[in-house]
Fold this protein.
Amino acid sequence: MPVSSRRSRARRTRAAAANGNGAGRLRARSRARSKAVPRRVAPASQARAIVAPGSTEMDRSDPQFKAALKFFSAAAKYFQKQDYKKAQELFEKVAVSAARELAERARVHLVLCGQKLGRSGPAPKTVSDYYDLGVAKLNARDLVQAIDFLNKADKADPDREHIQYALAAAHALQGNIEIAFERLKVAIALRSGNRFQARYDDDFQSLASDPRFQRLISPGDGRNS
C-alpha cells in the first residue's frame, strides 16, 4: 500500500477513535507532569489504543499489541459484568505491556477495580494524584467526588489545560452548563487542540445544541463566546 494511503488510513483511524471516548485526556502531557487517562471502559468490541498527538504507539499488527488488546477487551467485559477481581487480573497484564496507551488505560481501571473491591489506595498528595483520582471518579460517574478531586488539583496548580478540560466535562455531565462553558473556554485558551477534542467528546452532549458550544469548537473561534 502506498505510504500516503497508509497515512490517510491512520488519520481516519485516529479520528474515529477520538469520537466519544474522551480523547482530550489521552494525549501525552509531559509539561503538565501528569499522565492523561481515559474516562471510561470501552465495550470489548470497540476497545482500541488511541494515539495521542506527538506520541508513538505500538503498531497494531504487532503480536504484543494484539495480545494486550485481547486482554484489555476481556478485562472490559468482566468489568462491565462487575467481576472486578477477574477484570483486575487481566488489567494487570495489560498495565505492564509494551502497548503504552492501552497500559495507561489499564492502570486507571486498576484503580477503579481496587475501589470496587474495597482496597483503597494511598491518600492523594500531588496534583497528579488528585487529577488521576478525579478522572477515575469521572469514569465511574461519581461526579461529586470527581469535581472535588479536580478542584483540589486546580487549586494546587491553576491554569493547567488538562485539569480545566476535565472539570468542564464533569460539570457538563452534572448539568452545570455555565460552569462547564467557563472551564472549557479556559481549556481551549490554554491549548487550542482542546477545541478539536471537545468536538468529538460525548461528555459535552449537554452543550452540543448551544450556539456558544458551536462557536467554541469552531477553528479559530471561541474568543467571543
User: Anything to note?
Assistant: The radius of gyration is 17 Å. The chain has a mean pLDDT of 75.
